[in-house]
Amino acid sequence: MDSVTNHTLDHCRIPSRPTYRALSWVMVVQFSLGLPLNLSVLYIFIFRFQFWRNRCVFLFNIVVADFLLVVCLPVKVHHYQHNLRRSENNGLCKAMLFMLFLNRGASIAFLIALSLDRYFNVVHLGRRGNIVRTLKTSPTVSVVIWLLLLPLTIPTLVHTFECCNSHGRQVETSYHDVTDTFREVVFFTQIVVPFLVLVYCTVRIVSRLRRRTVGKKSRLRRAVWAVLSVLLVFSFCFLPCTVARAALLSVRLLNLKEAEDVAVQVYDALMVLSYTDCLLDPLIYCFYHSGFKDAYVSTFCPAFLKRKLIEQQCAVSRTNTTTSNRTNTTTGSRSVTVPNIERALWTT
Question: pTM for the full model?
Answer without folding.
Answer: 0.80
